[in-house]
Amino acid sequence: QDYFTDENRALKKDPQQDYHLEYAMENSTHTILAFSRELHTCDTNDKSITESTVRVIWAYHHKDMGEAGQNYHGSNRGTKSLRLLNPEREEVLSASLPYFDLTNKDVPVPDKDTTYWCQMFKIPVQHEKHHVTKVEPLIQKGHENLVHHILLYQCSSNLNDSVLDYGHECYHPNMPDSFLTCETVIFAWAIGGEGFTYPPHVGLSIGTAADPLFVLMEVHYDNPSYTEGLMDNSGLRLIYTPILRKYDAGVIEAGLWVSLFHNIPPGMPEFVSEGHCTLECLEEALGAERPAGIQVFAVLLHAHLAGRAIRMRHFHNGEEQKLLAYDDEFDFNFQEFQYLKEERTILPGDNLITECHYSTVDRIRMTWV
C-alpha cells in the first residue's frame, strides 16, 4: 500500500493511493514485490521521481503485519542510492574480449584525510588500432570507502620506461617532472559507480601513434578516520577489441578549477559556484579540429562532501538549451555516469556552465576547494 511518514517518523496510509502492485511472490528465502507509480503524482505526500539520485529506503519484519499494524523492523533495514531513470546499457560485449589491468601495487595510504596518489603505466596494446569498449573499477576488497575516485591522464609519448618504476604523491613539490606532461583526462571513475560501457558505435582508441602510450593513474584516497597501515592495490581494467567502431571517444572537462580562489564560507545552507566553459574556450578547442562539434553521450557529475546539487547547463547562440545533465539530490558516495537518452551536439562557440550547489551548515571553518 501507499504510505508516508510524518515528522515523527510514524507511518500513515496515504488517502491517495498511487502505488499499484504488479505482482508478488514469496518462497522460503525471498519476498519479491513489483510495483509501478507515476513519476509525478500531484500528491504532496509523494516525492517526484526525476533523473536525480533517489535514496531508496527498505525495511522488513520476518512476520506478516498483524491486526495491530506493522511490526517494527529492528535492524532489518537499509538504504541505497539509485538513479531510477538512468537508461540501462545494453551489454554487447563478448566475455572472451582481451583486457589489461592498471593497478597500484601495495601503495601505502598515509594516515591523513585526503591523499592523491599518482602512478605511471604503459599501454600494452601498440602498433595497431584497437578500441576500449568498457572500463571496470578494480577496488581492493574492504577499500570501497577508501578509494574515492580514479582519473586516467594521457602523458607525453616522448617518455621512456624509466618513468614506470615509481609512484608518488600527486601535486607534491617532489613529484617527478614526467607527471607534469600528463594533462588530458581520458577516463574518470568515482565512488559508488559501476563499470563504464561505451556505446556500440564508440570506443576509446589505443594502439596508434596518436593514442596514449604512457598514462598516469591518479587515485584519490579518502581516509577521514586517519587509519594507519593501509596498503592499497586498486585500479582499473580496460577491455578492448580489434573490431573498430565508427567514432573515437574523448573527455571534455568543465567546471571549477581547483584553486585557492574558490572557497565556500561556513554556515551556509546554500552556496552556489559556477564554472564557465566560455564560447571563446570552446571556439578555440573545437574550431580547427572539430568544426562540426562533438557528440556528448554520457556525463559524470563530480563533487565532494559539501556538494548537494550539480547542473550542467548548455547555451547555443546565447540561448539556453535543455540541461545537459543534473542531479538535485547529489550523493557523495554514489557518483555514476549518466548516459544521455539522446546524444547532444556541442558546437564551437557554445557555452557550458557547471553550477555547483553546496551546504556548509555543519562547518565552522572556510572550505577551500
From TrEMBL:
Domain DOMON: residue ranges: 1-61
GO biological process: dopamine catabolic process; norepinephrine biosynthetic process; octopamine biosynthetic process
Pfam family, one: Cu2_monooxygen
Organism, scientific name: Lanius ludovicianus
UniProt subcellular location: Endoplasmic reticulum membrane
Residues annotated as signal peptide: none
Primary localization: endoplasmic reticulum
This protein's name: MOXD1 protein
Membrane topology classification: Single-pass type I membrane protein
Keywords carried by this UniProt record: Copper, Disulfide bond, Endoplasmic reticulum, Glycoprotein, Membrane, Metal-binding, Monooxygenase, Oxidoreductase, Signal, Transmembrane, Transmembrane helix
